[in-house]
User: Which sequence fits this backbone?
């Protein structure tokens, strides 16, 4: 069993928004590694960061992603930092991995309204987001099999393009 698509990308790229829409378009179930962590621990992501620190969160995340990759056959969205963990990068090999990309301006705008992302909660979210993109875009590209720019596209437009690319050809279903 293997996910139809795993979605990676920076915070605010739309993984948790596009993922459920893509799953609906493909007729499969959606799952989000952050939701799995919250369900399993009974705590919010910000509480885990604040009380236990980022390394503890990354350990929980690696385990949640490994479990979902092994048992989920729908669309799986990861938290933005998940591909930073070497074990997760190794486990993503061979999967269909969609990199939702977002530029600095749109990324800051989309994440600025929420205090739920502890890594972006500092005094200068724009500088923090720029550093994050500089460090992570090469990592997302390393694991991805498909890349989609999201800045000037609605979630519905992104899903329409992806669903066409990921649809199983009729002859493969027979
Ligand atoms: N393509 C898009 N265009 C405009 N806004 C978007 C787009 N994708 C997501 N958003 C908005 O950006 C915010 C972050 O989206 P979310 O799906 O939580 O991102 P992620 O899971 O990648 O951090 C939400 O308010 C969402 O409605
Ligand atoms: O970029 C990151 O390191 C993180 C992104 C968040 O998920 P989203 O990318 O869905 O916001 C969440 O996993 C956590 O706050 C850490
Ligand atoms: Mg998300």
Assistant:
């Amino acid at each position: 069993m293997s996910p139809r698509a795993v979605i990676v990308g920076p915070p605010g790229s739309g993984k948790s928004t596009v993922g459920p829409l893509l799953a609906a378009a493909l007729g499969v179930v959606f799952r989000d590694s952050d939701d799995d962590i919250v369900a399993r621990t009974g705590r919010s992501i910000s509480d885990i960061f604040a009380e236990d620190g980022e390394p503890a969160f990354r350990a929980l995340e690696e385990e949640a992603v490994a479990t979902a990759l092994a048992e989920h056959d729908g669309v799986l969205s990861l938290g933005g930092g998940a591909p930073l963990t070497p074990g997760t990068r190794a486990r993503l090999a061979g999967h269909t991995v969609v990199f939702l990309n977002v530029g600095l301006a749109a990324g800051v705008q989309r994440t600025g309204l929420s205090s739920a992302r502890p890594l972006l909660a500092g005094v200068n979210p724009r500088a923090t987001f720029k550093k994050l993109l500089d460090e992570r875009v090469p990592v997302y590209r390393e694991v991805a099999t498909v890349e989609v720019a999201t800045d000037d596209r609605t979630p519905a437009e992104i899903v329409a393009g992806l669903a066409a690319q990921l649809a199983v050809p009729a002859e493969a279903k027979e």
